[in-house]
Amino acid sequence: MSQQVSDSGVLLNLQGISKSFPGCLANDNIDLQIREGQIHALLGQNGAGKSTLVKIIYGILQADAGTLHWRGEEVRIDNPGVARARGIAMVFQHFSLFESLSVIENIAIGLRGSGSSGKPTAQLRNRIHDVSSRYGLPLELDRPVYTLSVGEKQRIEIVRCLLQSPKLLVMDEPTSVLTPQEVATLFETLRKLAAEGTAILYISHKLDEIRALCSRATILRNGRKVAVADPATESSESLAAMMIGETATVLSHDNSNSGSTDKGRPRLSVNNLSLSDGDSQGVALQDVSFDVHAGEILGIAGVAGNGQDELMLALSGETRITPAAAITLHHESGLQAIAQSSPQERRTMGLCVVPEERLGHAAVPDMPLYENALLTAFKRMSLSRAGWISKAASHEFARQIIEKYQVVCRDSDATAASLSGGNLQKFVVGREIEQHPDVLVIAQPTWGVDAGAATTIRRALLTLAQAGAAVLVISQDLDELLQISDRVVAICGGRMSATYPAASLDASTIGILMGGGELPSSGLTT
Amino acid sequence: MNAEMLLLTALTIITAATPLVYAAIGELVVEKSGVLNLGVEGMMLGGAVSSFALLHLTGNAYFGILGGAFAGIFLAGIFAVLTLGLQASQVATGLALTIFGTGLTALLGKSLVGVGHSGLQKLPIPFLSDLPVLGRLLFQQDVLVYGSFLIVPLVAWFLYRTSAGLTLRSVGDSHDAAHALGINVLRWRLLATLFGGACAGVAGAYLSLAYTPMWVENMTAGRGWIALALVVFATWRPGRMMFGAYLFGAISILQLHGQAWGIRVPSQLMSMLPYLATIMVLVVISRDRGKIRKHAPQSIGKSFYPTT
Ligand SMILES: Nc1ncnc2c1ncn2[C@@H]1O[C@H](COP(=O)(O)OP(=O)(O)OP(=O)(O)O)[C@@H](O)[C@H]1O
Ligand SMILES: [Mg+2]
């Protein structure tokens, strides 16, 4: 490149960065320049190498080849401590939090060495209160992190980084589980930071976000830099085309729910489910009741931390509920009260669950994909006989998922932790859908997957419902809920709103429901 | 059973609990940093033999205490080099350390067997020691007993009130997340392991300087294992650990005095009790997912590989 002038204002300059993992070249000779005050997007499909590149910038991974210049001076970033000392902060795609520590302790320790005592003092408490209310990211400071949902964890990561007043802020899919309102306030904050000179490297699959926020975009494909563009002058389609390398297939999938107005009979009923918060400090569920019918998708909207987690745990069987009839499955043969059954029993009865946290909850990080497939599917897909595992069948099932959902990975022997975030998401979602459950409960189905894969997943959910299954989707992504659900209900403070046909709602009316409000014309409820 | 006898029993309970307090508080800090060192018994023996040898050579029991602490640090250092530096399995290395310590101390202590010395002096605290009952119980003790009263609140304060303590707990919770914050995981674990070694060494020193001022082969008699059980029994909380140490100390004393008082419980049953109690506590707390999740160090026993 000839115009490689080391002019002032360039904060970070990457040249020829390469990084390979066993069996895969994740970054191949990548150049990237970020200026002070610039909001720079890093785009690419799942597995394109975005997270790998930012981990190299932050010192978690070491590049095999290539150089980094910080303000024109060549630097080696051997570990995250070095990066932090330079003023680099990072929001991780798979959060990097201390689960057994409280929220405030997590933040305090993240501020070590940046002029803070690294102790949860009253002063810090006030500062966090200020910042989190200003940014519209509420936090409950004394809760241990393991009790929080992914949306709340994402807020901690963001607030922790913002408090560090970094010079370069790297954000790896920071808005993947935030609600639109939270995203809007966050963007204002980011723009303000940029105006004050902070450089921001921003990774997201939501192209309209990128176009609204970023002034420059570097696009990766298969580990290579393929283009640098100005997102404001590009359309979402043209950006997607650059990422995929061909003109994008039509991604919009209109589901006006034409055929599904005649609902089938109920498949899953939740009847007056109440759950005290006990000492786990969660949200108490209060008298939650709803039905999911055969052939429909019911969407649950809500700001993270309003009882979705508790509901998920109750549905999956990780928390048992009395009376057993609080959750019932409807079969041809009659009703089955399952609120006391174990997750495995529920799977056998036809209820499959995809929890929101893919790494560690939905999948065992250090196990290969075929074993992860086996773990939830061994009964339904008869992957084991008389207690003996059929390795061949497990591999076959895993391969089937990998192929159908285009999971980029070495093969079915790759460990779950070695997959990129979006690819693992495709795998854990595919694993449950391919078991063809009668009832599927799924949280954040498209967390962190690229637009193409999101369409694949949504289409698979619709197909599953059309085949007669009842699907319950909990999601922070309102567009997604409106697009695929037949009916939508909101959860707020552990209480459910009335249920509305998706066609009668839009983002702002759902917003009202999510805040615990009611819609004026209640004639719409079903 | 009169008041004097009760007081004497209470005094012996304190002597029985003190070595447990030192060994367990050290191991608690080690485990809070994410390291599982099963070599407590070996390190205690190392401390016991070295402190007695130093007492024998110098005639000064305080040198003995220092010697015990350094012997513990030395043995813990070997453990740290193997597990933190070379990423050997912590469980296997810890067990080996105990076996090694047992053998080595038996060899080194050969010439000390049968030697007698007056042990650690009592240091009555002026005025306070004149208090009725409490004075004799708490304020006419030796320096190690006073130290054991102080070390537990100090460690609790360190772990839960200082930023260094927070860092140490964070390293034990998730070494990857700690590394991502620029925390030097191995250094913190090294420091914690050495502290644990020093504490185990002092625990051993107490046995050979104060409890029974002499050296006998394998004189720890399983106290290192009880200390390990104690940490789990206490769900990694210093306050409960102190309580547990006194409880287990009391059990072992009752086992001795029981026969004198005509209580006929098989002594095997009594020596089983600490472990039985630990298992019962484990069963009880395992019903409460939150407690374990909150207090147990999540990355305990796992080796940390800085990524490349
Ligand atoms: N530790 C690892 N071991 C082996 N392969 C890895 C490892 N980490 C990443 N990879 C591979 O490197 C490639 C790039 O992964 P990366 O996480 O950078 O993708 P990404 O662009 O962030 O994708 P996503 O949008 O899904 O998060 C993927 O094919 C992934 O399987
Ligand atoms: Mg990624």
Describe the structure.
The complex is a heterodimer of chains A (526) and B (308). Chain A is of the alpha/beta class. Chain A folds into three domains: 10-244, Rossmann fold (3-Layer(aba) Sandwich), CATH 3.40.50; 251-350 and 439-446 and 468-526, Rossmann fold (3-Layer(aba) Sandwich), CATH 3.40.50; 355-436, no CATH class. Chain A is 31% helix and 24% strand. Chain A has 16 helices and 22 strands. Chain A has helices at 50-57, 80-86, 103-110, 122-134, 150-163, 180-195, 207-213, 236-244, 308-316, 343-349, 369-377, 391-404, 421-433, 451-466, 478-484, 507-514, and strands at residues 10-21, 24-35, 39-43, 65-70, 73-75, 88-91, 168-172, 199-203, 216-221, 224-229, 266-275, 285-293, 297-301, 327-331, 334-337, 351-354, 384-385, 388-389, 439-443, 470-474, 487-492, 495-501. Chain A has a six-stranded mixed beta sheet, with helices on both faces. Chain A has a six-stranded mixed beta sheet with strand order 16-19-20-13-21-22, with helices on both faces. In chain A, strands 2-1-4-5 form a four-stranded antiparallel beta sheet, covered by helices on one side. In chain A, helix 3 (103-110) packs parallel to helix 5 (150-163) and helix 12 packs across helix 13 (421-433). The longest helix of chain A has 16 residues, at 180-195. Chain A is globular and about 75 Å long. Chain A starts with 9 loop residues before the first strand and ends in a 12-residue tail after the last helix. Residues 1-6 and 250-261 of chain A have low confidence and may be disordered. By secondary structure, chain B is mainly alpha-helical. Chain B has helices at 3-32, 40-58, 61-85, 90-108, 134-138, 143-161, 163-173, 175-180, 185-211, 223-233, 238-260, 267-286, 289-295. The longest helix of chain B has 30 residues, at 3-32. Chain B is globular, with a radius of gyration of 19 Å. The interface between A and B is medium-sized, with 34 and 29 residues. Magnesium ion binds at residues 50-51, 93, 172, 420-421 of chain A.
